[in-house]
Automatic annotation (TrEMBL):
Pfam families: FA_desaturase_2. Belongs to the fatty acid desaturase type 2 family. Fe cation 1 binds at residues 76, 107, 110, 196. This is Acyl-ACP desaturase. Binds 2 iron ions per subunit. Its cofactor is Fe cation; Fe(2+). InterPro entries: Fatty_acid_desaturase-2, Ferritin-like_SF, RNR-like. One of its GO terms (molecular function) is metal ion binding. One of its GO terms (cellular component) is cytosol.
């Protein structure tokens, strides 16, 4: 039976890989500045500075775009919790610490840029937005005791979970930009999504190295992360309502989660082609395959229900329009 690796084992063995992945990231990353993505000429003072307070009529965003933008921004706002988790499990020593701090600095730009865009354009109520930020950041985000027990070594949680999480936020940001009906917002969110993709690549490389180092143990963590995955925005005000709206209109739904977030890393790691698992790993791989099949069936059922719902809504809208014309 193979030995279970500890966090210290993973940190020591993977540190050279982290150093190389960090250097690759630095060579690929793009220097950009939040102020270049905000239409400052649209801004005006609020009441406390002699202007006027926000009014819903001032927003040019649809209810769907508002929900998605708020969800994305509040997710970015909870960076202190994400930094704490990364720092705790990956440490601030050597290449690990350089990565954690660099990643945190890059992620911080996202919240700055998104908030500036929304406030300058009066896209959402800034008071409600700030209240939601305070509540969400105060609550924080961390793995539950059940998740920690299931996933295992903290280092694995800190590199496997972000592989999928960074992909998830990339999808959400990219699709949110498309529904804002504003080329400025679309450009900003494409920029943020590109950052998330580079972050995902770092974590995906680290997870690949962990799989080579300890195949069975790392596979178990990969499968557990997938089975117990929670979006980082879970727990924010209105998260469920906004999430349903986003899923209904194709910004982030179960099919996208499966095909654009879960499956690509599994293919990259060749999870279902590897021959280095023991019987224990083979069993866990079979369990993961069954879980993915269940996810696919659930996604199909949701799509069928959504199509029927949208068709009924379209028919009612057509009847209303006909009645008005008549």
């Amino acid at each position: 039976m193979t030995r279970e690796l500890t966090d210290s084992d993973y940190l020591a063995e993977l540190e050279p890989v982290a150093a190389d992945a960090l250097n690759q990231h630095l060579s690929r990353s793009v220097h950009w500045y939040p102020h270049d993505y905000v239409p400052w000429a649209n801004g005006k003072n609020f009441a406390a500075a002699g202007g006027e307070e926000w009014d819903p009529e001032q927003s040019q965003l649809s209810e769907l775009a508002k929900a998605a933008m708020i969800t994305n921004l509040l997710t970015e706002d909870n960076l202190p919790s994400y930094h704490r988790e990364a720092m705790t499990h990956l440490s601030l020593d050597s290449a690990w610490g350089t990565w954690v701090n660099r990643w945190t600095a890059e992620e911080n730009r996202h919240g700055i840029a998104l908030r500036d865009y929304l406030v300058v354009n009066r896209g959402v109520d800034p008071v409600a937005l700030e209240q939601a930020r305070m509540e969400h950041v105060a609550n924080g985000f961390a793995p539950t005791a059940e998740e920690e027990e299931a996933i295992g070594a903290g280092v694995l949680m800190a590199i496997v979970y972000p592989t999928f999480q960074e992909l998830a936020t990339r999808v959400s940001h990219r699709n949110t930009g498309k529904v804002c009906n504003d080329p400025v917002a679309d450009r900003l969110l494409q920029r943020v999504a590109a950052d998330e993709n580079l972050h995902m690549i770092f974590y995906r490389q680290m997870s690949a190295a962990a799989l080579d180092l300890a195949p069975d143990q790392t596979l178990h963590s990969v499968a557990s992360v997938i089975e117990k995955f929670r979006m980082p925005g879970t727990g924010m005000p209105n998260f469920r309502r906004y999430g349903v709206l986003m899923a209904k209109h194709g910004i982030y739904d179960l099919r996208q989660h499966l095909e654009e977030v879960v499956l690509p890393p599994l293919r990259q790691w060749k999870i279902f082609d590897r021959t280095d698992f023991t019987a224990r790993g083979e069993k866990r791989r079979e369990e993961l395959a069954a879980y993915l099949e269940t996810m696919s069936k659930q996604a199909s059922r949701f799509e069928e229900q959504r199509d029927r719902l949208l068709a009924r809504e379209a028919a009612r809208a057509e009847q209303r329009d006909s009645a008005v014309v008549g």
